[in-house]
Amino acid sequence: MDYKFSLIGKRIPRIDSIKKAIGKALYTGDIKLPGMLYGRILRSPFPHARIRRIETQKAKRLLGVKSIITSVDTPKIKFGLSIEDELPLTDKKVRFIGDEVAAVAAFDEDTAEEALDLIQVEYEEISAVFNMEEALQPNAPKLHESADRNIAFRTFITRGDIEVGFRETDYISEEEFYTPLVHTAPIEPLCCVAQFDTDGRLTLWAPLQEVGRSIFPLAKALSLPLEKIRIIQPTIGGGFGGKNGIQPFHVISALLAKKAGSPVRLVNNRQEEMEVNRPAVPMKIWSRIGVKRDGRIIAKETKILADNGAYSGHGPPITIAAAVRFDSVYRQKNLKTEATLVYTNNIPTGAYRGYGATQIAFALESHLDIIAREIGIDPLDLRLRNATQTGDISVHGWNITSSGLVDCLKSVAKASKWGHRRKAKEDHGIGIACSIHICGLKSPTKIRGSTATVEIKKDGRVLIISGEGEIGQGANTVFSQIVAEELCLPLESIELSSLDTDKTPLSLGAFSSRVTVIGGNAVLIAASDAKKQLLDVAASLLGEKPGNLRLRKGMIQFGKHYRRSVSIGDVAGEAASRGAPIVGKGTYDTGLDLPDKNTLYGDIASSYSFAAHIAEVEVNRKTGVVNVLRLFCAHDIGMAINPMACEGQIEGGVAQGIGYALFEELKREKGKILNPSFTDYKIMRALDVPDIKCILVETNDPVGPYGAKGLGEEVTVPVAPAISNAIFDAIGVRVRQLPITPEKILYELTRK
Amino acid sequence: MIACKKNEQIPVKLKVNGKWSQIRVNPQEILLDTIRARFDLTGVKRGCDTGECGACTILIDGKAVNSCLFLTVDTDGKSILTIEGVSTEKELHPLQKAFIRHGAIQCGYCTSGMILSAKALLDKNPYPTINEIKEGISGNLCRCTGYVKIIESVSSVVKKRNG
Amino acid sequence: MRRIKPFDYYRPYHIHEVLSLLKEFSREAKVLAGGTDLLVSMKMKGLTPSAIINLKAVEGLDGINHTGGQLRLGPLSTIHSLSDTAALSQIPPVVAMACKVLGTPQIRNLATIGGNLCNASPAADLPPPLLVLEAKLKIMGPSSSKLIPLEHFFVGPGMTIMEPDEILTDIYIPIDAESIGIYLKHGIRRAHDLAIASVSVLLRLEKGNDRLAKARIALGAVAPTPLRVKTAEEILIGERLSKISVESAARAAVEESKPISDVRASADYRKQMVKVLVEQSLMTIQRLHNRSIRRLI
Does domain B94-162 have CATH number 1.10.260.40? Predict the structure, then answer.
């Protein structure tokens, strides 16, 4: 791009930073409404039990209790993202420790807790199953009537001919990997405030990543028409997948509010958050890969077993993502994948940064590393040899409009001096891994693409109305940059409407790294439209041709040498007074062709981004502790609209990835989470941060605004395999089960 | 000896962001709740309630503490600083400016506590090393940023002081 | 996780007031020092004391001073104050070392040495260094006070020999300028975790022949209580530090340790870490000793 930008591509501080820095940003827990009550949920202490009786009289009589609900107070309509298998309050039986049984709303939190203690529930324990393989057995306890052998979902994908493929290979390798239960662990736990007005209309304030889409399951579970629901997104204290959709939690707060006739705030305490709020889907991945002597991938067979816990939530699309997503990193023709999602009496699992890619990347990138070493090829060369390139149609029919994978691999190799691979010290190692991510999923839902409006007001301020939402990833800033750039305005004159389904267009929201591409494009189109309207109005007012006008710093310049000017605000004011205010509108959709439902073949997103990470580690052979020294992260982001925000995402994603690789795990025994606190569920602290070098590779994708792609989730995906591969390089130990703890390392060292 | 039966209240005089206040509290009232509910200063956040995450960090007589582990009755005669008191009427504190400029704020939930811990560090040790900065904020968890730009921000304030 | 239930609150100024309150409430009262353990226990372990006695205003429970060749620490001394630069000239380095790695900066501003000892967590950071320094505790009861070697203080996880009507009033540490002490703590992250295993070693090497005149080793987080490992010490007394003696002492320490497997680590791994930490401690002190000898020359 030879056009010189004033804001695009610049390191711009986020526009909402100031409010956050002075403590004035409004989060859900900060909302105070007159007459607001405090809710608490009564949860099952058993992993699998029938409910015989619930006695709430004593609790109801407690002074200060305003409403108590059990399943009889609900429409008993099941809801769910893809499989409708959940009720807000369990009807006949509980399926995991923490399952919602009853709820209370009271004047204060102490009373609400006391009321919980007074609710008596008679449980009849039944046998439970905690292990995926056991759950699949014919005589295993059945969680859901509709799911035979506890299979929630299953998918089979074949491409090409793997029989022929494997026959043509020179080397075949078979391996098995395991990824654990990890928590999204945002610092703000799940919370919401629900209020019904006198017309029976519900307003829900909640830190939901997907606001527009959330109306549907909420309406279904509450048996309300869609128009009776309004969702407002306050500032979100982190998501990472954990705030990705409606859970019984939200429905319960609405039901409590309805019954009490007052607004209700519901907040998970940290223990509840870790025991109940949808951690990542653990997966057992068996992989068989056949290659030629030169490293070309010829055949690939994968079997995935995924643990959904008690309810499906995002489980099915995550399983598909794990089964499909990674295959387009490399060029290949023959593959066969079988993925099975299993119900168990464990905590329901769900979306975690990477959405299935994090799990499969660990398996496949570790496996390729194993193969490279066994056939004597440099792991970097193996990847370069197979890397997807711009213009490829991948094995699943993905149209790769731009691929920066090779650039990422080369730049990260150069930055880390991979070629020299100097082992500065003993027990020092270096490892590489790649990833792919989708930017802007073509959504098979009722909500298509993204719509935005850009309104120019008579004081020269510009209001962007988009339904996409800011979860801390910087979307609002990026949108503002785009509009300010288009209209040649300073960033300070741009305002963003807060996300409110009554005011903002229905949109899918922040997931699958779609906001920059799809939301951004809609905003760009709207800004261009606003610009055209502005210039047309100005032209007619000034008696000039629109082509003879130019925009500079909030002014429209015209005449000889552009010496004369009029402010954007004045023109907008004039337009408004004539009954035609300047409101630019933009809609962007990724296209209507969705992949084939059965074969899953077809383009699924507007563009695809790639990444390559190299990790440098040092392992202490005596203690097994891994010290991550450095991470080089190259990301094909198309075009960095805000490089500082990109770096922020990469650095945060790496921190999360290191935890995933080395020390994060929700431990459980017979369905009980053993470490539901930050004391023993360890996330990265400031002292653990390694050197992180961010390399932004700009491939100028033809689809995204200014050539940009998405970034938010992919940042975590290559970290664990890069570290695992580096550990092998350092001490010749390969741990196939995350997290790679010191104990596992010492165990492998003694085995050798 | 001061004595107060349960469910009775006890007067407490405390200075919050430079202003003295007298309130009556139950012994079991936690300072985090007092600041957020009574003083309406919601910049301080609840993240874990057990002193692990630091989102509830405020300064008591200049020292960073977890307000979720502090009884309000124990603040009698003490001076409390919350994020709302860090900037003056006219300008932001250098730490706030640095956090904004260097992109150290993403979701913002940890920001109040983080800035206060950094302030407590710099007020005591004006020229910390990078490792001392990391130590100083080691009681504050951030899930968004990976701490890199937070450390950069604090470091930039130190560098500016060095001139 | 629970909300804190109401309690009677007392803020006495004198020790005798504390003692009479403790007598009145018996096991129903808890004392409040820094609050970082008490409040967490009330939220996480369902502790519901009828009364809480705030010790912070009680005369005579704070302070750092010297009396008759001993260092006396008040139990209300905060962890931060013990590792602060101002205190460093008075506090034995091994104690300051442990203070620096205890909890987080926020916790250190509130937590007290008295609380860390009386809470008696097997993984507490201050007991191992205080054990190798052979600290003594003064415990006051309704009718008398006694001086107890720290070695006899801990009786089980979270349990001390103190009766419900007694309180800790002083911590005495004999001054020993000749010995070098070290505290090493093993955790998974570099940040300050609860110890998976910890070791404190105090050695005095004789001038001239480098034989050990004094050798004290204490372990944390690997037994029901923090413990001195005298078998390991006996191996070293009178000997020089060599590969053999170091390994031998480490093995003896491992023998004496009785770790459990829990959510943080397995017993096996803890035993392995005892060996690593003891060896590392001994070698580090040897190096520090050599360096200081070289400086004198």
Answer: no
